[in-house]
Amino acid sequence: MRLETLAVHAGGAPDPETGALSPPIHLATTFRHGPAGERQAGYEYVREGNPTQTRLETALAALEGGPAALAFGSGMAAATALLETLPSGSELLIPRDCYAGLRILATEFLPERGIRTRAVDMTDTAAVERALGPDVALVWLETPSNPGLEVTDIAAVAKAARAADALVACDNTFATPALQNPLALGADVVLHSTTKYLGGHSDVMGGALVFAEQGARYDRVAHRRHITGGVLSPFNAWLTLRGLRSLPARMAWNCTTARAVAEFLAGHPAIAAVHYPGLATHPGHATARAQMRDFGAMMSLRPRGGRDGALAVAARLQLITNATSLGGCESTIEHRASVEGAHPVSPPDLLRLSIGLEHAEDLIADLRQALDSQA
Ligand code: PLP
C-alpha cells in the first residue's frame, strides 16, 4: 500500500464491537484478568499499554516501515527512554546542530549515568567516521536539523556506524514519514516528536520510537517505558492517530507553500541567508533530494542587521505568529536563541519558520511587509 493509503487505514480497522469507523478511546486504566493475572485481551494496566495506543503504534510502525513502535508522552520522553538504555561508560555522538532539548539531555543528564556525548558535524561523513570509536554506542541523527536545517546522508552514516558497531537513531520530526524513512536507509531507530506534524494541529503532545527490529532493544525500551511511566495517554493517542490520517495531504501542501516562501525569502534584499534544503544553493540539497520525497516545510532565515534585525522582523509579522513548536496548521516563527535556555547555541540572527496550511501568497505578503521596511 502507498503512504497516503497507509496513513488513512493503518491501525484503523472499524471498532469490532460497534462498527464505528472512528476508533474508540479506551480510557480504562485497568483491564480484567484471571485470578493468577492471566490476560484476557492482551492488556493489564494502562502504563504498559492500551488499545488506543496500540492502534497508534501500529500506524506509526506502518508509516515508518518498521515492525514495532512505542508511543510516549512526549518526544523527549521517547528520546530519554532510548538513550538511558545505553551502557554506562559509552559515548553518544550528536549533531552539532540539533534540537536544544536533546543537547541538554545529552550534555547535562546523560553524564550523570556515565554516558559521554560529543557533538559532530553530521553533514560530513568523514568527520563522523573519525569520531566513531570503540566506546561509541549510538549515533544520533536529526535530518533536516532543528533549527539549522542541516542535512545528513543517513545511509552513509548508518554504514559507517554499522562498521563501528554503533547504533543509529534518527529524529525524523522535521521530515515526517511522509517525506523520509530512515529505517529504509539503515537507521536502527526513528524518533518522532508527534507533537509536531503527526498531531498536526498544535493541540496534542506525544513522542514515538519506531524500531527496525522487534528484538531485545525494543523489549528493553518497552520495559523502561512501563516502569518509568513516560507513556502516552489514550486521549492523546487518539488525537495523534486522527492527525496522522491527513499527514501526507498536509505535507504535500506544506511543501509546495514552503518552496514558494523560501524562494521569495532567498530573493529579498533584507535577507542575508535562508536555510531550506529545497533551495539548490543549500549545501545538503543533493542529499536531501536523494533521501527525501520532498523538502519539508521548515526553514530558517537570517535577516540582515544581526539579532536586532531578526527581532525587528519577527515583531512586524502579523499573520505568522511568534510561537514555539512547529508543524501545526498555523505558520509560526521563533527567534531560537531567545528560548534555548541558559546557553543558547543558535546564531543570534536566526529565525526558525514553520510553514502551516495558509496560502503561500498570504504568507509571502506578511513576510514582505515585515522585510520591506528593513531593506
Ligand atoms: N525533536 C525535535 C526535532 C523537536 O523539534 C522537538 C521539540 O521541539 C523534540 C524532538 C522534542 O519533542 P517534544 O516537545 O514532543 O518533547
UniProtKB/TrEMBL annotation:
Family under the similarity heading: Belongs to the trans-sulfuration enzymes family.
Region Disordered: start-end pairs: 1-22
Name of the molecule in the record: PLP-dependent transferase
Keyword set, alphabetical order: Pyridoxal phosphate, Transferase
GO molecular function: transferase activity
Cofactor(s) needed: pyridoxal 5'-phosphate
InterPro entries recorded: Cys/Met-Metab_PyrdxlP-dep_enz, Cys_met_metab_PP, PyrdxlP-dep_Trfase, PyrdxlP-dep_Trfase_major, PyrdxlP-dep_Trfase_small
Pfam families: Cys_Met_Meta_PP
Keyword set includes Transferase: yes
